[in-house]
């Protein structure tokens, strides 16, 4: 599939591959274990899912009865056609947020139609093939993909539709290369990580243990809950009743940020900068601006469940979910560019596509960002108060410059880790455009992603759209080359001598590329707080100011990240299911809780 319009240099000489990746594991929660054990061993890779079902996953009774005609839609507008008794939900976009919302609804028996602008599912968790390489479009660091606890939301989402995947455990979440030669590996084993960190900061051992210990307190509380919609009162009050201490712990930390808590225990400025870097890689902001619940989630899950890479590439997650959705009797249409959400008497009732087709449903769920949803898809309406508040507290995070490369394998030392974060000399550059460099080498774990004797290097760094505006085609291409050369030469100096002469393949994407292919306003990575936020208090959930319209994805609670958007998908599906009568609900309590939550958000 040819998609990203990058610059491309090809010089392919096969040589031997010299890394031995760890063996893959298949994770299932115990209740799925027997049923999916054999399926798991074959359940990955594009060809496996090209046709037919993921597995003989349990289908809802409604899904079994349903016979779908392939949806074609209504061309020309105005005329409405019912497909059977209509869709329960239309999902705009097939990012992980949209797919989890869609599949969770489908397994509850809802009829779902997912409309995706692009030709494959996944959005920023998609993939593309070039010259024998399988590249992950975005991040290759997968949280929530283990066989343990309640927070393995990616594992659970795949299992729910009978599509578990084989994963390869990563022994190190990330290898930090920081100023003053601070080189820290975040080992999967918590004690090993703490030992390594305290070897640099022996005088702060107590503070380190206290800060990360507080993260564990929050993580354990989160991990003890059944995760559903925090906007659904029967569930929420039920959880408070069953796990009062855990819920009160979470309520206490909800408005707090990691940086303030770190400062209670830690004084060393360099260690505090390290905590900033820890937070920056998952929130694109420093620790003072990172909600403590989110920080705790990622700083502990990497040791509890560990980071696990899906065999065959990250793109397999979206492909499996899309397949699972169809297995459940729902549908997904590609090249379906939604240009507006149709409202009638203030309620969202359907969508219109760029080719004029219209689709109608009881509810509409947008996986486009809130800026795209309310700025482009909702036409001729004033911005709802809730969205105004959201935009007061959050701005669009910058986008990324990304370099996808194939390199000769021998340029990497034998013990190279899969993920690296590089900030060479100056801590103040952490959040600056092109200041810090993210690097993933997924072929360290899965050699099948590259031709023999080659590795994939996926390099990315923050970059804003403003930097790429107003250039001619020639200037744009030249600038891509200059910026990429500079980043590669920094990595060559810091990590891999000889890197630039070992390149077999290279493509460079800019914020414009992300805007074009991910349909995200300004190519944004997601929302980031304008100032110091009150933790997660200001982050909206899934309902919106427009009846029948819900949002899902990274501009919803709890924010950026694949596992975060998977959680927003789970929450959204629960709230929608309650609203269309597939789950219990109490209209009186609903009205009270939604009003209360709306008021909380105004405090942020
Ligand atoms: N950028 C990265 O490097 C990267 C990589 C992997 C994962 N992630 C995480 O994934 C999160 C985003 O996941 P997400 O689920 O919120 O969304 P997403 O942006 O990944 O996917 C949204 C999908 O909706 C589609 N879409 C948007 N507007 C549309 C329209 N009008 N009509 C039809 N389709 C439309 C897009 O084509 C895309 O496939 C990010 O926060 C990030 O943390 C990011
Ligand atoms: C309702 C109210 C008000 C109250 C009540 C209380 C309670 C109960 C509460 C509860 C809560 C909850 C449940 C919550 C939850 C949360 C969660 C789940 C969260 C999650 C999160 C996650 C995240 C944030 C993640 C992220 C991640 C990311 C972003 C990642 C990224 C990565 C990358 C970029 C890569 C890197 C790379 C290199 C280094 C190379």
Approximate strand percentage: 15-25%
- Which percent bin holds the helix content? 25-40%
Uncertain residue segments: 1-22, 26-52, 64-70, 72-84
The first-to-last residue Cα distance is 44 Å
Quickly name the level 1 CATH class of the domain at 25-165 and 311-394 and 538-602: Alpha Beta
Counting copies of identical and different chains, the oligomeric state is: single chain
Q: How many strands, which pairing sense, and closed or not: the largest β-sheet?
A: 7 strands, mixed
Q: CATH topology of the domain at 25-165 and 311-394 and 538-602, anyone? A: FAD/NAD(P)-binding domain
Number of strands: 21
In CATH terms, the superfamily of the domain at 25-165 and 311-394 and 538-602 is FAD/NAD(P)-binding domain
User: Nearest-angstrom radius of gyration?
Assistant: 23 Å
Q: Identify the CATH architecture of the domain at 25-165 and 311-394 and 538-602.
A: 3-Layer(bba) Sandwich
Derived from helix and strand composition plus strand pairing, the structural class reads alpha+beta
In round numbers, the mean pLDDT is 88
User: With helices defined by DSSP (H or I, 4 residues minimum), what is the helix count?
Assistant: 18
* Silhouette: globular
Q: What small molecules are bound in this structure?
A: nicotinamide-adenine-dinucleotide, lycopene
Pathway: Carotenoid biosynthesis; lycopene biosynthesis
GO molecular function: carotenoid isomerase activity; oxidoreductase activity
Family: Belongs to the carotenoid/retinoid oxidoreductase family. CrtISO subfamily.
Protein name: prolycopene isomerase
């Amino acid at each position: 599939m040819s998609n990203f319009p990058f610059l491309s240099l090809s010089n392919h000489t096969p040589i031997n591959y010299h890394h031995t990746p760890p063996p893959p594991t298949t994770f299932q929660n115990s209740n799925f274990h027997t049923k999916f054990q054999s399926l798991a061993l074959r359940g990955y890779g594009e060809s496996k899912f090209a046709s037919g079902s993921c597995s003989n996953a349990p289908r809802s009774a409604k899904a079994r009865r349903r016979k779908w005609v392939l949806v074609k839609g209504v061309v020309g507008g105005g005329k409405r056609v019912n497909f059977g008794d209509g869709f329960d939900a239309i999902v705009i976009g097939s990012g992980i947020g949209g797919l989890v919302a869609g599949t969770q609804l489908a397994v509850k028996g809802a009829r779902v139609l997912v409309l995706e602008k692009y030709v494959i599912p996944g959005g920023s968790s998609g993939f593309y093939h070039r010259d024998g390489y399988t590249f992950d479009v975005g991040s290759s660091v997968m949280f929530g993909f283990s066989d343990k606890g309640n927070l393995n939301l990616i594992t659970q989402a795949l299992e729910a539709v009978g599509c578990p995947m084989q994963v390869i455990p990563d022994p190190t979440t990330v290898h930090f290369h920081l100023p003053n030669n601070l080189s820290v590996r975040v080992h999967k084993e918590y004690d090993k990580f703490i030992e390594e960190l305290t070897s640099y900061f022996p005088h702060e051992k107590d503070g380190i243990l206290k800060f990360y210990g507080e993260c564990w307190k929050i993580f354990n509380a989160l991990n003890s809950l059944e995760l559903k919609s925090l906007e659904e009162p029967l569930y929420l009050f039920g959880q408070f009743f069953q796990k009062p201490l855990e819920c009160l712990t979470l309520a206490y930390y909800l408005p707090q940020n990691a940086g303030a808590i770190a400062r209670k225990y830690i004084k060393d400025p360099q260690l505090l900068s390290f905590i900033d870097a820890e937070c920056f890689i998952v929130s694109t902001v420093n620790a003072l601006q990172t909600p403590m619940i989110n920080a705790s989630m990622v700083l502990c899950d990497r040791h509890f469940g560990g980071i696990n890479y899906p065999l065959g590439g990250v793109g397999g997650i979206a492909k499996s979910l899309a397949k699972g959705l169809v297995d459940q009797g729902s549908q997904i249409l590609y090249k379906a560019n939604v240009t507006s959400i149709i409202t009638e008497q203030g309620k969202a009732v359907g969508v219109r596509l760029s080719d004029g087709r219209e689709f109608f449903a009881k509810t509409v769920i947008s996986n486009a960002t809130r800026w795209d949803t309310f700025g482009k898809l909702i036409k001729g309406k004033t911005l709802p108060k809730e969205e105004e508040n959201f935009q007061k507290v959050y701005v669009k995070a910058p986008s990324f410059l990304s370099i996808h490369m194939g390199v000769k394998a021998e340029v990497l030392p034998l013990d190279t880790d899969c993920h690296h974060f590089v900030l060479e000399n100056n801590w103040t550059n952490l959040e600056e455009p092109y200041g810090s460099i993210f690097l993933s080498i997924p072929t360290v774990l899965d050699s099948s992603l590259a031709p023999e004797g080659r590795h994939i290097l996926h390099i990315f760094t923050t970059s804003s759209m403003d930097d790429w505006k107003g250039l001619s085609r020639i200037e744009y291409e030249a600038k891509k080359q200059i910026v990429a050369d500079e980043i590669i030469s920094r990595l060559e100096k810091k990590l891999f001598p000889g890197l630039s002469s070992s390149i077999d393949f290279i493509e460079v994407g800019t914020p414009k590329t992300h805007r074009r292919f991910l349909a995200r306003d300004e190519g944004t990575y997601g929302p980031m707080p304008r100032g110091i936020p009150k933790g997660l208090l200001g982050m909206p959930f899934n309902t919106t100011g427009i009846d029948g319209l819900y949002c899902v994805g990274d501009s919803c609670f709890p924010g950026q990240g694949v596992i975060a958007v998977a959680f927003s998908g789970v929450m959204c599906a629960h709230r929608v299911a309650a609203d269309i009568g597939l789950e219990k609900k109490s209209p009186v309590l609903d009205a009270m809780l939604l009003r209360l939550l709306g008021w909380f958000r105004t405090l942020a």
